[in-house]
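Whether sequence alone determines local backbone shape is best considered at the level of individual chains. In the encoding step, the backbone of a single protein was reduced to a row of integers, each denoting a local shape. For completeness, the protein is quoted in full, as a sequence line and a line of structure tokens.
***
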Amino acid sequence: MTFSRTAGLLLLVLLAGCSTVSGWFGGSKTGQEPARLTEFKESAAFAVRWHQDVGSAGSNALLPAVTRDAVYAANAKGELFRLERAAGKQVWRAESGFAISGGVGAGGGLVLVGGGKGDLAAFEEDGKLRWKVKMSSEVLSAPQVADGIVVVRTGDGRIAGLSVADGKRQWLYERATPALVVRSHAGVTIGRGVVYAGFAGGKLAAIGLHNGILIWESVVSLPHGNTELERISDVTSLPVIDNEQVCAVAFQGNVACFELAQGNLLWSRELSSDNGMALQRKYLYVTDTNGAVSALDKISGSTLWKNDQLARRNVSAPYVIGSHVVVGDYEGVLHALSRDDGSLAARLKTDGSGIVTEPVELDGGLLVQTRNGGLYSLEIRAKD
């Protein structure tokens, strides 16, 4: 995809001294009609275990969070909910005191949400506020918690490590930002004491969880093109990791995988995505900018299958469950694809509003939150 086709549907916003490009939240990002859904022979079916309404996310990409004992979800108005895992029944509701734009994060006995003016609130699991701090800019993604550190990414490109106990800053990682960047809801991925984050300009960084020191930085994609818009090549989705490698993908750029310890490049190939990926066992699953879902060999990057039947439907990042790959679209429709060949296996219509974030694992099934606030606990069952 090039900006010659999409610039008319992109919104330029002046933010923190630099320009950001924000995607089109309706249907197609290209101005072309989204692909129509066609009939297919279902080999599986979604089953709704429970459904709850938690209120609208507005234009934000709000994720539910799952802990050992509960499900947590939030809405743009500033409300945070604790729900029972098994039945979805509301246990408590708390007011954050600000409009929520990033969340929900959970871990270390905390439940965290962030706001558009830099507010960050940490609640106890019983709904009591433990602490509230002010960050340097808007919080657009879910805070992460690991080893007593809360990791928060802000809209100005900074990443901060805070104390779980009181929210005091332990470290700050910051870097120069290009003049024009894509406004992103991507946060960070944490594994084995390392924070992995993608940045504008196609860079991927590994940062120490306990000290914020850069361990290594590698190039996912280099900018190219004649105009500033064409030269945008930002990593706008979460990196994915396993025990061997970390992979990232850039908007208008490449998908690439690196070895964990030193960040040495394993392979790279052209593929544009602002949606995200999933990495499981031998395969890397990617939703590209046009809405096609592909399965790649994680060792070589070669394509095993590609399904483009959902083209231009603003397809979410993929989620792998059992023998299926699940994605959502701008009309709130969930699609299950076969892991073997990418063929459509099942479909479920939710509340008609967009599903912009990937599903979350819940008790052998999945948890999905729509833009209008529909929270669905689901499982997939094979048909006889």
Q: What stands out?
A: Residues 3-6 form the longest helix (4 residues).
